[in-house]
């Protein structure tokens, strides 16, 4: 794992701490639940140098109900007037932030860590939604 990949993984996982997540540690083939900052700090200290990967839901696992409800809730199209152009549809930036928060809360891999080999696909029902 490169330094950049490790930084990306840690940035992603730090944002997930308030919602909890599960990591797989390869040295002892163990899945570990992280539910607080203290849990994460202890895990990092204990697992220093060992390979681990979080379990995340691929974006493709989002159900129709999840996408329909959440997308319409967070992304309200606003028609913005631009001088010389007219009105163009734009997305509310607050909605985008709330949507990312929702993706994190529901354990989605919105950064593409699974295809990069930095995360594992969550098993069905691992995160009860």
Plain-language structure description:
The protein is an alpha+beta fold. 37% of the residues lie in helices and 22% in strands. The strands form 2 sheets. Strands 2-1-3-6 form a 4-stranded mixed beta sheet, covered by helices on one side. A two-stranded antiparallel ribbon has the order 4-5.
Topology:
Elements: H1 3-16, E1 21-25, E2 30-34, H2 37-46, E3 52-56, H3 64-74, E4 77-82, E5 86-91, H4 93-105, E6 120-121
Parallel strand pairs: 3-6
Antiparallel strand pairs: 1-2, 1-3, 4-5
Helix pairs in contact: 3-4
The tally of domains stands at: 1
Number of E-type strands: 6
Shape: elongated
Q: Ends: how far apart?
A: 31 Å
Q: What is the multimeric organization of the chains shown?
A: single chain
Q: In this structure, how is the largest beta sheet organized?
A: 4 strands, mixed
Provide the β-strand percentage band: 15-25%
What is the residue-averaged pLDDT?
Answer: 86
N to C succession of SSEs: HEEHEHEEHE
The percentage helix is 25-40%
Which structural class fits the helix and strand makeup? Answer: alpha+beta
Rg result: 18 Å
* Major sheet strand order: 2-1-3-6
What is the number of helical segments per DSSP (H or I, 4+ residues)? Answer: 4
Poorly predicted runs are none
Structure, briefly:
The protein has 129 residues and is an alpha+beta fold. 37% of the residues lie in helices and 22% in strands.
Give descriptors for this structure.
single chain; elongated; 6 strands; two-stranded antiparallel ribbon; alpha+beta; 129 residues; 4 helices; 37% helix; four-stranded mixed sheet
